[in-house]
Amino acid sequence: MISFHPALFFIVGAILLPLVQTKFVRHMLLLGTPLLSFFSLLALEEGALWTADFFSYQLILLKSDPLSLVFAYVFVIASFTSFVYSLHVKNKGEHAAALLYVGGSLGVTFAGDWFTLLVSWELMAVSSVFLIWYRGTRTSLAAGFRYLMVHLLGGSFLLAGIVLHVGEGGNFYLTALPREGLATSLILISFILNAAVPPLHAWLTDAYPEATITGSVFLSAFTTKSAVYILLRVFPGAEILVWLGAIMAFYGVVYAAMENDVRRLLSYHIVSQVGYMVCGVGLGTPLSMNGAAAHAFCHILYKALLFMGVGVVIEATGKSKLTDLQGKNLYPRLPMAFFLYMIGAFSISGVPLFSGFVSKNMIVTAAGEVHRPFVHTLLHLASIGTFLSTTLKLPYGTWFGQAWKNRNEQRNLQIKNLPINMIIAMVLNALLCLIIGIFPTMLYQILPYEAEFLPYTVYSVATTLQLLLFSGLAFWLFMDRLRGTAAINIDIDWIYRRGAIWFYKMCNAVAFARSGLQKAVNSLLDLVTIIGINPLSFPSKWRRKEKKLIRYDPDNYRPPIGVAICSFLALFSLFFFVFVCF
Amino acid sequence: MKKKIALISAVLLYSLANLAIPTDEAHFVWEKFPLFNLAFGFIGCVFIIALAKILGKILQKNEDYYD
Q1: Residue A412 distance to chain B (closest CA, Å)
Q2: What is the distance between the alpha carbons of residues A230 and A237, in angstroms, rounded to a whole number?
């Protein structure tokens, strides 16, 4: 049976899109591509299905197994709802970039060898940057450039690692890597850069909030989660990932609690949630790795829903900061967005009956089973922080916020009419979150590893409710301290954003020093020349300030080039004459 | 005032009710303390708010900081 590469539909779609003239055909293309891709996924058999010869290597373009299928399913489903969300956007370039971006992520998911992985990896980086640039503001242009630079750096690390790995006689096909060596370190750095592990995470929180409204929905889903997929494949059970993941889960929530821009707040929660998955990969038990895959699945859906929710608010009001939104009482005017956002918010906080509960608890339980008390505690803390900022602070500030109202500002916000497709997309994602939360076996049966897990036990439901209700109580008591403040928070990107200014200054200083030195040496040379003309006359000349110095000009003392040619020709003919005659 | 009394009594009732939950599934000793998770939720949340406030003093800059 012929099998189609699911990424192929997206790439062909991106090529066809510029030719499309009418709105109807554009809509059909955008919605049809994920649907066709989904059907091709359902028909995929396991194993290496597409191979190609490339010099002396055999590339595996399409290799499917249960692990790649889990991620591919959710990538295609998320791309469908995200295209529904962005259907009203007229910019074909943005749609084409999104199609290529999804195609690249599916390429990563089904890559069977390092070379295919590298090409898909770079395709994702290059296409996704347009989702940022199409916002068209000065800040988005700058953020996009920084995003691209960081990802190209990560891509070069990957390339260098692959070249070293394959050059040392390592396996050309994607398998778990040995735990040491320079090649492994380089590859790991490029993977954790894409997974936004601190200190390599700042590209995410810098760039995602500057993307187009619909673009940030796409961005939230693919880059970090394809990195989680590849970590699961190449670095299962790597001890360093346990610590990086646990710290990152906590790091994200602390920054989110300080944040004022709603999309940046959610971006910090991507960092935090991916921390759970990275930790799950590092723990390396079947349950924790299943948890990482399941959490990626749920996370893509609810995170897209959250970005859609705040996207609706930004689309309607043009404001993205809590300081501009709080106290404006948007709730009566955007109630649907609020309710659907809250489904995503309950999912990300892991409230029972919502999707995050059935996936996040797998990782936390796995950390408990292998007796990692510190990791377990950090993950619990991160859950509390997630509830605090995504479920309480952000929605309260955005849709209500009477207690945080600025006293001197009374003007109400103008609300634009919303395209209906945005709400439909949110409904779709919210339904998926609820279905997974209520019927978790649907998700569990496609997970790649063998592990038993019962999400709904009395103990786990009660524990979660206890944690969340009492953190809610703390929020209510200290609510005043969490109001948005008009400020930006310095993060690791400070090093290259401020550092760049200092680097320019340093370059200028070096250039200044060099030209100063040149001037000094030149004037010294002049002085020597003055003395060298006639040392005896020098003092008198100095006094009379006679500066009729004849500067040294080499042409004064050397014959024109014709003389050299002439003498060469003369000598040559002389030799020739002598040679011929005798 | 009535609201406060209602809230405090609700919190107390909820805490009492939670004493009845069996803790056999807990992975660590401290999780078996009565009402551990309630306290952890509250203290953890206060801790995060406090940490964010303290870090904010150091890390928060004007919005035109990078311009």
Answers
A1: 23
A2: 13
CA A194, CA A511: separation in Å to the nearest integer? Answer: 36
> DSSP states of A147-200 as a string?
HHHHHHHHHHHHHHHHHHHHHTT--SB--PPPS-SHHHHHHHHHHHHHTT-TTS
Q: What does the pLDDT read at residue A416?
A: 86
User: Looking at the partner chain, which of B14, B45, B61 has a beta carbon nearest the beta carbon of A388?
Assistant: B45
* A253/B14 touch (CB, cutoff 8 Å), yes or no: no
In a domain, residue B40? The reply is yes
Q: Which long-range contacts (CB under 8 A, 24 or more apart) does A349-354 make?
A: A349/A383, A349/A386, A349/A387, A349/A390, A349/A391, A349/A468, A350/A383, A350/A386, A350/A464, A350/A468, A351/A464, A351/A468, A352/A437, A352/A456, A352/A461, A352/A464, A352/A465, A353/A434, A353/A437, A353/A438, A354/A302, A354/A433, A354/A434, A354/A437
Count of other CB atoms within 10 angstroms of residue A309: 31
Domain encompassing residue B8: 2-59
Place of tokens 């859609």: A308
What percentage of chain B has pLDDT greater than the value 90?
Answer: 31
Inter-residue contact A305 to A78 (CB < 8 Å) = no
Q: Is the dihedral angle over the CA atoms A285, A291, A297, A302 positive or is it negative? A: negative
Among A388, A457, A488, the residue with its CB nearest the CB of B63 is A488
Report the DSSP pairing between strands B60-61 and A488-489: antiparallel
**Which residue stretches of chain A have pLDDT < 50?**
none
Answer whether A17's CB lies under 8 Å from A92's CB: yes
Q: Among partner residues B41, B45, B55, which is closest to A254 by beta-carbon distance? A: B55
Give the integer Cα–Cα distance in Å for A390 and B66: 27
Say if residues A384 and A373 touch (Cβ distance below 8 Å): no
Taking every pair of Cα atoms in chain B, the longest distance, rounded to a whole number of angstroms, is 57
Specify the DSSP element, H or E, that contains A52. Answer: strand A47-54
Using CA atoms of B18, B20, B25, B29 in order, give the dihedral in degrees to the nearest 10: 80
Q: Mark yes or no for CB contact B48/A369 under 8 Å.
A: no
Using CA atoms, how far apart are residues A181 and A168, in angstroms rounded to an integer?
10
Q: Does residue B27 belong to any structural domain of this protein?
A: yes
Q: What is the pLDDT of residues A258-269, one digit of tens each?
A: 999 999 999 999
In whole angstroms, what is the distance from residue A483 CA to residue A465 CA? 25
Q: Can you say whether the dihedral through the CA atoms of A172, A174, A178, A182 is positive or negative?
A: positive
* B3 and A CB contact within 8 Å: no
Asked if A487 lies within 8 A of B52 by C-beta distance, the reply is: no
* E strand or H helix at A50: strand A47-54
pLDDT at A545: 54
Helix ranges, A370-457 (H):
373-386, 394-399, 420-438, 441-444
Number of domains in chain B: 1
According to DSSP, the residues that pair with A58 across neighbouring strands are A53
**Alpha carbon of residue A493 to chain centroid:** 13
Provide the 8-state DSSP code for A48: E
Alpha-helical runs (H) found in A195-349: 202-207, 213-234, 239-258, 262-283, 286-317, 322-325, 335-349
pLDDT at A577: 86
What is the C-alpha to C-alpha distance for residues A338 and A319, in angstroms, rounded to an integer? 16
* A382 and A306 Cβ atoms separated by less than 8 Å: no
C-alpha A194/C-alpha A201 separation (Å) is 8
State the alpha helices, DSSP H only, in A400-537: 420-438, 441-444, 458-477, 493-533
Take residue A368 and report the two structure tokens written for it: 């408990």
